[in-house]
Structure prediction request, 452 residues.
Amino acid sequence: MIDTDTPKRQQLERGLGPFGAISANVLNMVGVGPFLTIPLALSAMGGPQAIVGWVLGAFLCLCDGMVWAELGSAMPSSGGSYFYLQQAFGSKGLGLPMSFIFLWQTLLIGPLTIASGAVGFSDYMSFIYPRLTHYELVITAVAVCLVNTCLLYRNIRSIDRLTIAITIVVFATCASVILGGIRHFRASMAFDFTPGAFHMSRTFWAGLGATTLIAVYDYGGYNNVCLLGGEVEQPRKNIPRAVIFSICIVTLLYLLMNISIVGSLDWRVAEHSQAIAADFMKAVYGQWAGLLISVLVLVVSFGSVFANMLGYSRIPQAAAADGQFFSVFARLDPAGRFPTISLLFMGVFSAVACLFSLTELIKVLIVVQAVFQFAAQCIAVVLIRRQHPEATDNYRMPLYPLPALIALLGWIYIAISSGMHYLVIGLGMVAAGFVVYLIKARRGQEWPFEAI
Prediction:
């Protein structure tokens, strides 16, 4: 295991067990996303063949998950990519700007990612209470962020139990959709492919790319446990298990949900739905079921905000404890041993982000992560292998380095296919972060200015 532990006074408590670690990932992955994006996937592919995109997305995430699992097992510290990039590229060299740029993008990505879940929560509220005004929906999203901040302001052992409880609701929500689909499943609807559905035309590949992007977005979150590495019990075993198991669990849930919905609700109707789970349950059981599933989806999306804030709040704390960020962010609660200032930062700024439209910004941020963080980690795992060939007791991905290569090509494809406009903005954000690092390094006589 590579030593990235902070001094004793800064250490977090390892109180997140194996089930809590898996739950933290599942909560992050299964937010309101799939309950809103299944119609988008059907529309992009023009029919039930959209399931191919969900399978490809799962495969890419599994390959990338193996990268996260190996890095998380080797360096089980809270902060995730911050430490991975620093150690892989050199803690006294290129690793310094690499880890700083990750921190730079996280300070923006964190609040916006958290806020996107809260805005999704408020959007689903509008399906239950259609008379809510825009102002009231914004207030609802802000409240979700602030309430989650209060819930997370406690010891990790309490959070462990809470994540498991919310995860049970997640499974109950997905199970209700799946069971409803099984009881009313019709193969003629599930496999109602249009003529030429699998013709390898430009339209097919474009639709498949769009569907895969949607799937990858919905699968995202399997890395959450790596951000909590310093609080996981037996991290060399539990981090890889949480990453791989959560991907497999959520993949199974998503595929069954897709088949259940398309097998019970005409996909031509489903592709235009704005609340697919509610419309599906209403068609199967009646109005009461649609309202009930809407409430459950709200709980799921609330849990997603909870899990995102839990993970992202640990990154500034880890960087500050390492001396690479403002020292105030390193503060831990004396009794509960959890980050305080870092958590409050994420909570307050995510609430502020709820005031803005996030659709375009999120697209840009996904490109930023693909171009820099995710792609860089595929290279980092190779560098770590070469630096520490003796660390055979850590998790090691099978078929190395093929999964890392597949993931790297996948992230490059995602970045390019998103459009040149988003790619330029994403690269611009990375460049801006590098400039800020150079200013900081010049003042602090750090690499590459230590000898000047």
About this structure: The longest helix spans residues 81-128. The chain has one domain: 10-357+375-409.
